[in-house]
Amino acid sequence: MDLSEIRQQIDGIDQELVRLFCQRMNLSAQVADYKKANNLPIFVPARERAILQKVAEMAGPEMENYTRVLYSMLFELSRSYQSKRNGEMSELYKSISKAIEETPKLFPQAPIVACQGVEGAYSQIACEKIFKSPFIMYFKNFDGVFNAIEQGMCQYGILPIENSTAGSVTKVYDLMIRHNFSIVRTFRLKVDHNLLANPGASLADIKTIYSHEQAINQCSDFLRGLPGVNVVAVENTALASEMVAKSGQKDVAALSSRSCAELYGLSCLASSVQDKGNNRTRFICISKNLEIYPGSDKTSIMMVLPHKPGALYKVLARLYTLGINVTKLESRPIPDREFEFMFYFDLDTSIYSEEYVQLMCELDELCEEFKYLGSYTEVI
Q1: What is the C-alpha separation between 235 and 138, in angstroms, rounded?
Q2: Which DSSP category does 118 fall into?
Q3: DSSP notation for 201-236
Q4: At 375, is the secondary structure helix, strand, or coil?
Q5: Is the pTM of this model over 0.70?
């Protein structure tokens, strides 16, 4: 049998598969109607496990695993179709719809905003890119920003969440598990690190360099070229500049933004010392209340999944079924819960799309726990 004959047979099988698939989905629709009329859940784990076991045995040892994957996808498609057919709005989507309706059409211009660090911090720079004329309150650490939002001290907060060179800001992810908030906007800031010192100092004089741990990681190549120099991590790049200025010493320096040089009266010993020229940090803007502004096309969620094989696959399969692109997936251990992880997802999907509505109505059946973090626009 030549290749064309084999392909002809495959085409015939495909036609039959499509016919049977449509027939199966039509029967799933009838099941959905029955479940809705009798107030029954769409997802019945015991039945799905039994079917998977049955079809795997039917397929035989060589095709067992392939058959499980195929039918797992069929189940996801069937549940998604049933949920869509039932058309019931979840409590989450009802609150989202209310937020879309009640959120002002114009993004705030001059709110009170919480930032971590001191004057000159990259968070401040990001804040002034997001808002036209913000009033900024500074807090010592990231936890202080979250607390300020939750206590109503500030309307918004700005936090770094990831860097294109150094990766995720894990402290912020861990705090996101503990605090209640909503992401209303994100911004990608081009980060330019400079070695700043007191006037009169030279590079040969420097014995200690201060900066934030992320900035230190982003400038690792430059720092390796300074043997014998002690590198000390502090809470913020701008705080590092402030410390150097207050010390008055010529043997200390800071890795910080160029704006800090003028702000704290420092000299620039070396400019743009980050490892990569296209070094960007993504900042999130958070609020206490759920606000969804017009044009929002990104959504962030957190999920707790069962600690067993296939748990993450099922979520990704559902997102694939809905045609929703995952732009970020991050996992973090949950404090005080052994071998349990919170998965963070960034999703590309417009708040006005049918896929978005369907996902928001199906989230509760995809995992053990979930946390909707908000839908927003990203400014670049």
Answers
A1: 12
A2: S
A3: --GGG--EEEEEHHHHHHTHHHHHTSTT-EEEEES-
A4: strand
A5: yes
**Which residues make beta-bridge pairs with 369?**
304
- Residue 60's region, left for phi above 0, alpha for psi from -120 to 50, else beta, is left
pLDDT digits (tens, 9 = 90+) for 172-202: 998 998 899 999 999 999 989 999 999 999 9
Between CA 221 and CA 279 the distance in angstroms is 14
State both tokens at 161: 């969440």
Task: List the beta bridge partners of residue 248.
Answer: none
Confidence of residue 39 (pLDDT cuts 50, 70, 90): confident
Q: How far apart are CA 281 and CA 285, in angstroms?
A: 13
- Tokens linked to 17: 């598969």
Q: 131: closest CA among 147, 110, 106?
A: 110
Write out the H or E segment, with its range, that includes residue 182: strand 182-190
Does pLDDT of 314 surpass 90?
no
- Token pair 């052994």 is found at 338
Q: Check: CB of residue 186 under 8 Å from CB of residue 378.
A: yes
Q: How far apart are the first and last CA of the chain?
A: 57
Could you tell me if 117 and 142 are in contact, meaning their C-beta atoms sit under 8 angstroms apart?
Answer: no
Burial 222-243 (b: 16+ CB within 10 A, else e): bbeebeeeeeeebbbbbbbbbb
Mind telling me the catalytic residues? 281, 283
- One-letter identity of residue 140: K
255 closest CA partner among 210, 205, 315, 320: 210
Give the C-alpha separation, 372 to 352, whole Å: 17
